[in-house]
Amino acid sequence: MIQKRHNWFLTHIEYQGHGKAKFEDPKGILEGHVLIRFNEFGNYTVEMDVENCKPDQPLQFDLLEFFSAEKPIKENGEIEFTPNLGSNKCISLIVETSDGVYSTTRNIIYNPIISFSSNNQCKVVFYIVESQFDVKQERVPKYWVMPLFNFVSKFQQRNLQLDNHPLRIRPRQDDMQNTTSLAERKELLFPSNLITFTFKNNLGFIEPLVDFSKRKNILYSGQSQCVITAVMICEVDCQSCQSIDIENLNTWLPLGFLSLLSLATGTEVTSPWVEFRDVNGEIVKRIHRNFVKPTFSKGHTTISEVTHQGTGYLLTCAQSSPYYCKQPLGSVLFDLVQSSSGNFTIEDKLNKICRAFDSLCKYHNLDTQNLLLGLDSINQELVKNTLQSAAKNIRNIAKTTIDSQQSKLLKKLLIKQLMLAIKTEILGLQLLIYLRS
Predict the structure, then answer these.
(1) Are residues 371 and 380 in contact, defined by beta-carbon separation less than 8 angstroms?
(2) Residue 405 class from Cβ within 10 Å (0-12 exposed, 13-18 middle, 19+ buried)?
(3) Domain positions in the chain
(4) % helix / strand / coil in the chain, to the nearest 5?
(5) Predicted TM-score of the model (pTM)
(6) Tens digit of pLDDT for each residue in 319-328?
(7) Residue among 106, 91, 103, 98 at smallest CA distance from 46
(8) 2, 282 in Cβ contact below 8 A?
(9) Residue-by-residue DSSP string for 167-185
């Protein structure tokens, strides 16, 4: 995949080459041509045309036995075997392409399709949770890139430091010599504005794709509920450049920005993959993670870029908050965004708001209230004596009851009533306390 100036970003990703899939029990390797595709709408396919099966030991039932964790059983001189296709765990898939290596080693699910009518030809469809692609050339990562699903906003900012950035989407004037279409020229000459932010003392930006208006119309018209509309780009700091593998991403990559962008725009924003590129903009690594595929709905916009251009400022300031990237902030923001979604009923929206406040109240230990604390010492003592007397009477009833089931229920009633008399866990009360605090 050769990158060119201003059209370096690909909304459709394709890898293909010779692949090897390793399996656990029975142990063995499948080999064959693998085709992997990711598109701009959040869909993907990973398929292998099996050319060779190499089990560590001979199998009586070939592929049927290889894909099954079940073993043949010999009884009374006869062999019984009930295949359970897909139960043999796939522990890795590695594909050698002309440009690099695509690999995955976690939570691989697959579906084998065996054609018994044509020499046992087999195709395996893989369902991947996370994977990565590494180029063959040794390059040092300089920038991280996150394509954004469903990010719809105005872009009002410009920073001269970013005019010659190697990963700008819109071309400069001297890059448009081969552009002959009048419509294309008009689109490209539109002011190349951004949303800018700071991450780890580096200047970052969000830029719409060249055909942003078309993609926005796709969402608004309902042609698709999910499409890449923009890219978010910033530098990789020196400490993080050694930690760009899948298992280390959560330790430094600002994935929390996605929920903040969702809050700002009123619709859920996620990312299909993360790219790392060198100082010249060439690809170093691409990591595909199974982020939630959002469903577009035009909700309540909390930040208007036309009015005060606060989206980038939100991203910058949020990093200094002690709650950033910690629970329950992520789930609270998710519920708040969904509470304004046009895809939900009024009851659903109210439920989302209540869930958000419920999470906040539990986090701040406001989900229960000791009612005795609101009484003076004299009334507290009177209530305690009354409760003790009531508890004694209920215990006596439980002891004299012949029916054991009735006795158990009375004891449960005793515990529950005593707790309710002292503490309460009513959502309305939680909400009232939180709003007063």
Answers:
(1) no
(2) exposed
(3) 13-131, 137-325, 369-436
(4) 30, 30, 40
(5) 0.79
(6) 999 988 888 8
(7) 103
(8) no
(9) T-SSPPGGG-TT---HHHH
